[in-house]
Write a structure and sequence with these properties.
Two copies of one chain form a homodimer.
Chain A lengths: L8 H4 L3 H12 L1 E3 H11 L8 H13 L3 E8 L2 E8 L1 H24 L8
Antiparallel strand pairs in A: 1-3, 2-3
Chain A binds a DNA duplex through helix 1, helix 3, helix 4 and strand 3.
Chain lengths: 117, 117
DNA sequence: TACTAATACATAATTTTCTTAGGTATTTAT
DNA sequence: ATAAATACCTAAGAAAATTATGTATTAGTA
């Protein structure tokens, strides 16, 4: 089995929202920096979410009513926790299901499994 | 199991080159229109490659030395067949392996399989 | 104690990639 | 005849990421 040190950025495109929504669904609430670290840790560094990509995404999900925030102060440093709203939970589930289906299709298309598996 | 009529364009981003390289690896040579039809057919319409995305990609792969072309005339209509060059075959294999690895990582990350599966 | 790394947020310019919308022309089916 | 399918192509714009910054606090270390 081939092991990558880190995926080409092209490959990761389009999966960021799915990853973020899924993590929030599993963990209740998380803050931005925590998300970057968690993804890095869970993927052994193969996926590293940059802050330049993450924060605009979080803001747009919030503006879209799928996330809500809550500030917490650790000393003088602020942490902005994000969690799913009710519609956000629906979106999260839909996206995860869509991605699972997509992976099956890609597996078949790329002939990575016995056909019809 | 959830079934999508067609995936959100966001999800497909970044997979086009992998799909094209894989099809050419499996089928020897194909022309542009044939690729769009084959993908549509193999994925039951869930992935539909637009020509506006495909042709520029084919041209850039060719310019990059990974594909070479051969014209064929069907009556007066031209067909431009693409096939992998030697370096193109290496790239194709690498991309497919990378994608397979990526899917495993995403499965784990999205908790779609028992962990460590 | 000074310095560096890590934590934690954020935005802006640029690049990449795709969508949308157009264009040309031939062949097949109605 | 006309529409749909086949077959190529490009260009303007949108979307999403990268790269490069910026600010500020806290923890670790030399």
């Amino acid at each position: 089995m081939y092991i990558c040190p880190m995926y080409s950025s092209e490959l990761i495109k389009g999966t960021l929202k799915t990853i973020v929504l899924n993590l929030l669904k599993e963990n209740g609430k998380m803050y931005g920096y925590e998300i970057t670290q968690k993804v890095k840790e869970l993927t052994d560094g193969k996926i590293q979410i940059t802050e330049g990509a993450l924060y605009p995404t979080l803001h747009s999900l919030e503006q879209n009513g799928e996330l809500e925030t809550e500030k917490e102060y650790i000393g003088k440093r602020v942490r902005k926790y994000y969690k799913l709203t009710k519609p956000g939970r629906v979106t999260a589930t839909a996206r995860i299901n869509e991605f699972a289906d997509f992976m099956n299709t890609m597996k078949f298309l790329l002939d990575l499994e016995p056909k019809m598996g």
